[in-house]
Amino acid sequence: MVVPSPRSTLRRWTEQLRNREDQLTVVLSLLIGVLVGLVVVAFILLTGRLAAQMYPAGGAAWRRVVIPVIGALITGFLLFRYFPNARGSGIPQTKYAIFINDGYISLKTVLGKFFLCSASLASGIALGREGPSVQIGAGIASVLGRRFGLSKESVKALVPVGCSAALAAAFNTPIAAVLFSLEEILGDLHAPVLGTVVISSATSWIVLHLLLGDEPLFHVPAYRLIHPMEFGIYAILGVVGGLGSVCFVKLLLKLRTLFMRLPKSTRWVQPVAGGLVVGLLGWFMPEVLGVGYDYVEQVLGGDFPLKTVALLAALKIVATATCYSSGNAGGIFGPSLFIGAMMGGAVGSVAHWLLPHQTAGPGAYALIGMGTAFAGIVRTPLTSVIMIFELTRDYSIIVPLMISNLISFFISYRLQREPIYEALALQEGVYLPTGESRRGLEEIRVGDVMHSTAALFPADMDVATARHRLAEMGRNVWLVGELNSLYGMVTLKKLEEIKNPSSTLLNQVVNPEDRFPYVYLDHPLSLALERMGSAGTDTLPVVSRANRRRVQGVINMADVLGAFGVKQEQGSKKPT
């Protein structure tokens, strides 16, 4: 009797799993949780030890200026030359992978993000490690999914699994990690990947605890409500947090627009601007350097002067906005908590000075302020409530936290409509899904019924020919341009107003700067129908999220009605 070797047995099990993607996905979720937990722990330790080497106790003040500049110069060159996809926080890049690139994140990007972000944060750049951890975790999940031969859809489904595992280890908040992956990364709290996301988050959290112990990210004193009037002060904190969040987001986006206008050849040196700004600020106030979690814990304990925290909130907004917009590697999670703690500490100090017997200590307001700023900046109100709850493990903070978060979220939404990650993507010309494209999850999608090939009218076609073609097609509007370059849309009504149709070309009628209605592949048909009705057209281009000028197909009214079971009217024609 021949006993099979362990290697052949493992190969047989692997082949069996590959034939059952659902089972393989569950196994991979466990494996991703373990691997991502180990990598994030290594990321935390490496960053901390590098920072200790660069900023030893009692080190000279010049280090606070020189090291961030040198660190930004080195990492900026490497990011530009070798790892362009490792710039920034990693959250928008992860969403690009899901919604545009079929879940693809290269191993090269994962390695670049790990090492360059470690060096950047250790040098004192005022960014955070949580966003980069999310991209690293998503990249590990993507690489494993492709390595095991999963389909594109299954690889895409693994990306939020890696995100959840990374955030659970980086923040020590497994529940908030699950919610963030669903609320922000996917935009769907009922996503079918919920089970695997929970598995990876729990597994990664266990790995973190086995290696680093059961230590919360911050040690905070027990919270208690002193007087019901404090709810009013928490509402004021929500207003302050909302306005501060809007200032931060608008400044970051404005600065990033300015940097993006510079020649691309300067992109490798642009991060130095962030290093120089944070270095000069750090010369006077070292707390601005890095993420600043040590000082946040000090503020949460109530040990701080009012002027210091108020100034630090403003300086951190400037430092983080400049560091991020100039192209350094790092996220905004950590800085948003720092900014919120400083704003909360300032509000709490004033309230406690005015009403010492009716208010808790300033540290309690700093704690609520963390969630308030996070809700205003990142726009994930549910995640921010659960995250602060997990950080403190104190249920009594929930009500004041919800009050403050809701007000901050509302003000932020009213004054800055696009959430920060969607706004950053728009600056890159990438159009990520918003709430409108995520509703009606059981609906048929545009991509299911559209025509993937359609002959666009060339821009040099004369109006007479275009009229004739539209009449033949039975359409009242059509696309002008080439397949990969949409010039615009022209309506039959507009063409009929032209007095000299034979001598007038379409490029004389259609202005490429004019806005036109369109849909994406993943939009529900209800939205396509709504946009057709609003625009008074019977045809819409289906465009790429990465470039609205690249046509992926065409959808018309007959297609939509047919999908809803309404018979196509006699005489209407398919597009050619």
Could you walk me through the main structural features you see in this protein, from its secondary elements to its overall organization?
The chain has 576 residues and is mostly helical. The protein folds into three domains: 14-212, Orthogonal Bundle (Clc chloride channel); 230-427, Orthogonal Bundle (Clc chloride channel), CATH 1.10.3080.10; 435-563, CBS-domain (Roll), CATH 3.10.580. 62% of the residues lie in helices and 4% in strands. The chain contains 25 helices and four strands. The strands form two sheets. The protein has a two-stranded antiparallel sheet with strand order 1-2. It has a two-stranded antiparallel sheet with strand order 3-4. A hairpin with a 2-residue loop joins strand 1 (477-482) and strand 2. The longest helix is centred in the N-terminal third of the chain and has 34 residues, at 21-54. Mean pLDDT is 86; it is low at 435-442 and 569-576.
Q: Judging by the overall fold, what is the CATH architecture of the largest domain?
A: Orthogonal Bundle
- Please list the strands of the largest sheet in the order they lie side by side: 1-2
Instruction: Write down the overall geometry.
Output: globular
Strand content: under 5%
Q: In terms of structural class, how would the helical and strand content be classed?
A: mainly alpha
In total, the number of domains comes to 3
Order of helices and strands: HHHHHHHHHHHHHHHHHHHHHEEHHHEEH
Euclidean distance between termini CA atoms:
67 Å
Number of strands: 4
Using the coordinates above, name the CATH class of the largest domain.
Mainly Alpha
Helical residue percent?
A: 55-70%
| Count of helix runs | 25
CATH superfamily of the largest domain: Clc chloride channel
Radius of gyration: 27 Å
| CATH topology type of the largest domain | Clc chloride channel
Biggest β-sheet description: 2 strands, antiparallel
